[in-house]
């Protein structure tokens, strides 16, 4: 009866979560309009839209780019910060070297919607306003879907519907909410990263590879999602070689995992090659070549980040940047606390890269450790039959059954069995650690708030703290932090003041 009720409970929680996600987007939109009506933007140059460098032959009966009416002006004036670049790419393509820092997935979806679904609105408000509207629809819809996928992933990993729901609600009101409702790539990255994890945990590895590859088309850190494939491949190859003594199977697992990782990184690499062809190809004289074109490994993205934005190891460690470190300190503190807490509880997983997880944890439904879904059906069937025959040969013992039951109960209550401290969380914690270290030591540190906002362990750990009676005060602190950054972000960001 309980099992029959569980799916309905999950679907009911999911429908409630959708309402929370939609309400959170409406709240951010309301605050943005409110602050924008009270304050004068610091920079109003975003509304300027010079002609594209490459003039295209435009038919005489083509719809206008700009239409002078209040709605179109409101939409165009709402474009701030990086949103200007994404819309410029949508309209004119990649014109300048520094604009290659913005990957093409979001401009592609904006162009797709503005030329199909919202095309009838072009004569009324103009093409540029339609592109702005399309951008808002894409990012906000992607956020709602990302919240749904986070809940589904959380249910598989945490094996606790209530904890998963809490974590997903926190995500709906996360401190970087303003970026998920603006024309930024965070929403698409979160959707394809978390959605890719869900498909990986569900056994659809090829679909997961496609989603991870798309996340790499939204943000460069999407290629780090290949780490989940590497982790799964490592454990499956170990099981095939050392536990099952099947060399061919282990080689097959390694080759498959390698191909999947290459497929995840391929779109990002192809985009770098596209930039190299546009900027470096065709120049005969070395004096005409950009410095990065002459490198042995010409990486356009790294050069842009270093040359135009000053990104590099410890380059942001300056006294004048102290306010930005303070701005990023809450999210970095939460990340460090979640990692340290996990390390203290499960140190054996860090020292063994997860190989000391219990057999029960390795055979969980998350499919991160086990090789079962890779094996042929006949092998699984034969192993099940052997297990059944062994059970029939055993003599029932009441004392033994009681002992086993007690041990199972102890395991289910231990942090190793479920919840935030389960072995399934380990690869996510490692991924979070790598992202947090990159944000602190290499990037502009204030970007950490939105850079880490799509990491599921942050919300799992926050949910764990809120539900714990010992840490009840942390719940109020967590929600105060989210509320303060939603208010502050909508106030500063929407009026072109620096936020993160």
From TrEMBL:
State the family it belongs to: Belongs to the PIGV family.
Alphabetical list of InterPro entries matching this protein: PIG-V/Gpi18
Regarding the membrane, this protein is recorded as: Multi-pass membrane protein
Question: In which broad location class does this protein mainly occur, judging by the first location in its UniProt entry?
Answer: endoplasmic reticulum
Which residue windows are coiled coil? none
Q: Per the UniProt entry, what is one GO biological process? A: GPI anchor biosynthetic process
- Region feature Disordered, mapped onto this chain: 385-415
Indicate the transmembrane segments per the record.
16-35, 99-118, 130-151, 163-183, 253-279, 324-343, 428-453, 474-497
Task: Specify the domain of life of the species encoding this protein.
Answer: Eukaryota
Q: Where in the cell is it found?
A: Endoplasmic reticulum membrane
Q: What is its EC number?
A: 2.4.1.-
User: Can you list the GO cellular component terms from the UniProt entry?
Assistant: endoplasmic reticulum membrane; mannosyltransferase complex
Is Ribosomal protein included in the keywords of this UniProt record? Answer: no
Query: What role does it play?
Result: Mannosyltransferase involved in glycosylphosphatidylinositol-anchor biosynthesis.
One Gene Ontology MF term = mannosyltransferase activity
Sorted alphabetically, the keyword list is: Endoplasmic reticulum, Glycosyltransferase, GPI-anchor biosynthesis, Membrane, Transferase, Transmembrane, Transmembrane helix
Q: What is this protein called?
A: GPI mannosyltransferase 2
Give the source species: Brassica napus (Rape)
């Amino acid at each position: 009866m309980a099992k029959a009720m569980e799916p309905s409970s999950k679907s009911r929680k999911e429908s409630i979560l959708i309402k929370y996600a939609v309400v959170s987007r409406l709240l951010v939109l309301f605050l943005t309009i409110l602050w924008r009506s009270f304050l004068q933007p610091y920079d109003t140059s975003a509304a300027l839209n010079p002609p594209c460098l490459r003039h295209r032959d435009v038919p005489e009966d083509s719809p206008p780019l700009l239409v002078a009416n209040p709605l179109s002006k409101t939409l165009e004036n709402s474009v701030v910060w990086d949103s200007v670049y994404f819309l410029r790419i949508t309209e004119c393509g990649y014109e300048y070297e520094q604009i290659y820092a913005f990957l093409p997935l979001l401009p592609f979806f904006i162009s797709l919607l503005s030329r199909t679904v919202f095309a009838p609105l072009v004569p009324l408000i103009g093409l540029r306003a339609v592109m702005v509207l399309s951008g808002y629809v894409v990012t906000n819809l992607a956020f709602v879907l990302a919240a749904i996928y986070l809940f589904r992933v959380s249910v598989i990993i945490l094996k606790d519907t209530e904890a998963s729901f809490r974590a997903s609600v926190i995500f709906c009101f996360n401190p970087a909410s303003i970026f998920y409702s603006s024309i930024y790539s965070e929403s698409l990255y979160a959707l394809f990263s978390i959605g890719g994890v869900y498909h990986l945990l569900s056994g659809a590895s090829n679909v997961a590879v496609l989603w991870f590859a798309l996340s790499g088309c939204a943000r460069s850190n999407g290629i780090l999602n290949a780490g989940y494939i590497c982790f799964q491949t490592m454990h499956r190859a170990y099981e095939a070689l050392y536990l099952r003594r099947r060399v061919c199977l282990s080689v097959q697992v390694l080759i498959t995992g390698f191909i999947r990782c290459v497929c995840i990184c391929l779109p990002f690499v192809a985009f770098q090659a596209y930039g190299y062809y546009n900027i470096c190809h065709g120049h005969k004289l070395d004096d005409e070549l950009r410095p990065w074109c002459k490198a042995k490994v010409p990486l356009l993205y790294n050069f842009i980040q270093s040359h135009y934005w000053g990104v590099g190891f410890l380059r942001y460690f300056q006294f004048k940047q102290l306010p930005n470190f303070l701005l990023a300190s809450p999210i970095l503190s939460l990340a460090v606390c979640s990692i340290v807490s996990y390390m203290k509880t499960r140190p054996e997983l860090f020292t063994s890269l997860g190989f000391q997880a219990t057999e029960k944890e390795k055979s969980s439904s998350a499919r991160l450790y086990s090789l079962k879904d890779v094996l042929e059906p006949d092998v699984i069937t034969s192993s099940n039959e052997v297990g059944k025959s062994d059970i029939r040969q055993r003599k029932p013992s009441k004392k033994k059954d009681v002992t086993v039951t007690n041990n199972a109960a102890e395991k289910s209550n231990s942090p190793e069995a479920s919840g935030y401290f389960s072995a399934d969380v380990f690869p996510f914690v490692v991924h979070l650690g790598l992202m947090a270290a990159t944000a602190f030591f290499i990037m502009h540190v204030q970007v950490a708030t939105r850079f880490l906002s799509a990491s599921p362990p942050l919300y799992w750990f926050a949910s764990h703290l809120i539900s714990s009676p010992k840490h009840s005060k942390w719940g109020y602190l967590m929600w105060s932090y989210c509320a303060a950054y939603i208010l502050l972000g909508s106030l500063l960001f929407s009026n072109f003041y620096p936020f993160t």
